[in-house]
Design goal:
Layout (H helix, E strand, L loop, with lengths): L2 H11 L3 E5 L6 H4 L11 E8 L5 E7 L6 H7 L5 E3 L2 H8 L19 E6 L6 E4 L6 E6 H11 L3 E4 L6
Parallel strand pairs: 3-5, 5-8
Antiparallel strand pairs: 1-7, 2-3, 2-4, 6-7
């Protein structure tokens, strides 16, 4: 699904959302340079895999949170984790680096990627890319969870450990 497909899906589903178009951003430092209406609700996404390339996870946290991957893997009984390659990102989610988003899970035809959403987003709004890093879509966290769960990817709210 591309950006226009995402917009169409959100409208078809009747999900309240707001779109902020902006220049392409490839990291959180660049995001900090653009004017977003709800910066406190902007998401950062980490696409990781285990050392055997058997388990893939998308971890979504608030933009300023630093994830402790070692604690995360122990908390979820996973093998050692590292960042997935750009080729794996494109192959599995159809995304480029800098455009990583939970909405990319809608491109995961094998439903292989597990999604872990930080509890900090529970009951509120979340801002994610619409499979393109030139916009941010703001929607209710529960609506995003519903979309991903209906698609069939394992998705859970989780307490994501933070580096101290």
């Amino acid at each position: 699904m591309n950006k226009q497909d995402i917009y169409k899906l959100l409208i078809e589903r009747g999900f309240a959302h707001e779109i902020t178009e902006h220049s392409a951003v490839f990291n959180m430092a660049e995001v900090a340079q653009i004017a977003l209406p709800y910066p406190q609700d902007d998401a950062k996404n980490l696409f990781v895999r285990d050392d055997k390339k058997e388990t893939y996870c998308l971890i979504t946290v608030k933009g300023d949170k630093r994830v402790d991957l070692k604690s995360f893997r122990m908390q979820h009984g996973l093998r050692s984790l590292c960042f997935a390659s750009e080729a794996e990102l494109m192959d599995m989610l159809g995304l480029i680096a800098g455009a990583v988003t939970p909405l990319g899970l809608l491109n995961d035809d094998q439903r292989k990627v597990r999604w872990f959403l930080d509890r900090d987003f529970a009951g509120g709004r979340i801002g994610v890319h619409p499979n393109d890093n030139t916009a941010t879509v703001w929607l209710q966290t529960e609506d995003l969870l519903e979309l991903i769960r209906e698609h069939g990817n394992p998705a859970q709210l989780s307490l994501i450990p933070e580096k101290s």
